[in-house]
Amino acid sequence: MHHKPKHSTHHSPADSTDAHAKSHRWLLPVLLVAQLMVILDITAVNIALPHIAMDLKMSGSTISWTITSYSLIFGSLLLFGGRAADLLGRRRMFVTGLGVFTASSFASAMAGSAAMLFASRAGQGLGAAILSPAALSIITSAYQGSRRAKALSAWGAVGGAGAAVGVLVGGVLTQFTDWRTIFYVNLPVAAVLLFASLKVVPADTQKPRWRGLDLAGAALATTSLAAIVYGITQAHSAGWTSIQTHVCGIGGLAGLAAFAIYELHIDKPLLRVERIADRAVGGGLVLMLAVAGTIFGLFLLCSLYLQNVLGWGPLTTGLAFVPLALSAGIGSHAAGHLISKHGVRGPLAGSFAVAAVGMFLLSRVGAHGSYLTDVLPGMLVAGVALGVATVSVSMAILTGTRQEENGMISGLNSTGHEIGGTLGIAIFSTIAAGSGAILGPQAASGIGDAFLVAALVASLASVMALALLPRAQHFLTKLALNPQAMPVH
């Protein structure tokens, strides 16, 4: 007599392997979409700034805090976020960051005042600072060899493409709906990401380790950077020689010095400050501040000019940035070939010099200018050059790092990018508001002055690249020993 075999409740090894492969296939897309959402909330808001300013009755350099309050917290807490992912669990921190970012997005959409919006944007920055390094840590632990290189390439591409996608998304949403939709749209996306991440992101196997989290260092760095940015943004109204400006500036710099000293004397620092003595790392960090500040300033100033001076709508303005995105992509692609032959010193010096030319062309924008003759030429020239510079400066920082400090140096690279962008927005928006007008033809004068200062910054960075970075033969030797080094934003 034959009996039908009972169905087993156990899955075969083949079933487990198939399930693992399926979840692994979806892991990278989930992490990339999360990072894209974080990047979009910088440039998408750029396009909506004039509408936000009118709705919430902002004026002058105050407008820039819509972006600055986000990027400042994001950038200054990235090192802490990376350390927290290592100690508390990658998936735990990814989900926590996603939750904080989502709740703050809802608060931003509901904001009824400028102060409420700035506080909510700071909350988004906190969520992004927790989410982003956790996602990057998940990638580096889940993928090995050539698969890791491809995954990191995709991560870097999202950082570059996110800026271009952001202005288009911001333009479409602001044109056809309302600026608040930029934040509301995060809610369904985040809900899908949360559900997917619990399915495909590997669970944390260790219990949270709270000892070793450098809360004091993170608080000191964030407070010091905030003081510097606040001093710069308020300098126009308070006066560059006022006590307030000096206290914020000097106090912030003293705080950063105290942070460096403190990090040198603890067992598990957020940042091993001595690594900045490496010319490629330290010089690259200084130049990252310059290139990120110039790029963020370029997006902001072009957006203000097209909308506030020429009277363009959000959608048309978003489309106007497509040539900039394409030219930056061309520059980024060319950078790899240039670096492999000439190191980073020559390409960076040259790219900053060309970017200065592009910014100088843009400084001639007038009250009754034209996109085709006054904006597009300078935008294309600066775009190609800054594309080369962004990749080159990241390669300078990341190449030659030791295996055990990859996360820390990657965090330093990302921190430099966000803080540089924050300072760039603070400085250039303050200069642009110097004419006393932010709307109408009279705003062109201040915007032109800001572009001219950007040209001077790029010129100075070109000279600094020659002085700070290692010669080609020394850098190429490092690159040969670490061919997988690549930019991660």
By DSSP (H or I, 4+ residues per run), the number of helices equals 18
Q: Give Rg in angstroms.
A: 23 Å
- What portion of residues belong to β-strands? under 5%
What's the helical proportion of residues? over 70%
Low-confidence stretches: 12-20, 484-489
Distance between the termini: 67 Å
> SSE order in H/E notation?
HHHHHHHHHHHHHHHHHH
Based on secondary structure, the structural category is: mainly alpha
Global mean pLDDT: 82
Shape: globular
The largest β sheet comes out as: none
- Counting DSSP E segments of at least 2 residues, the number of strands comes to 0
Topology:
Layout: H1 13-56, H2 65-76, H3 78-88, H4 90-110, H5 114-142, H6 145-176, H7 181-184, H8 186-200, H9 215-238, H10 243-264, H11 279-309, H12 314-320, H13 322-342, H14 345-362, H15 371-398, H16 406-432, H17 444-468, H18 472-481
Helix pairs in contact: 1-2, 1-5, 1-6, 1-8, 1-11, 2-5, 2-9, 2-16, 3-4, 3-5, 3-16, 4-5, 4-8, 5-6, 6-12, 6-13, 9-10, 9-16, 11-15, 11-16, 11-17, 13-15, 13-18, 14-15, 14-17, 16-17
What does this structure look like?
The structure is a single chain. With 489 residues, the protein is mainly α. It has 18 helices and no strands. α1 packs antiparallel against α5 and α1 packs across α11. The protein is globular, with a radius of gyration of 23 Å. The C terminus is likely disordered.
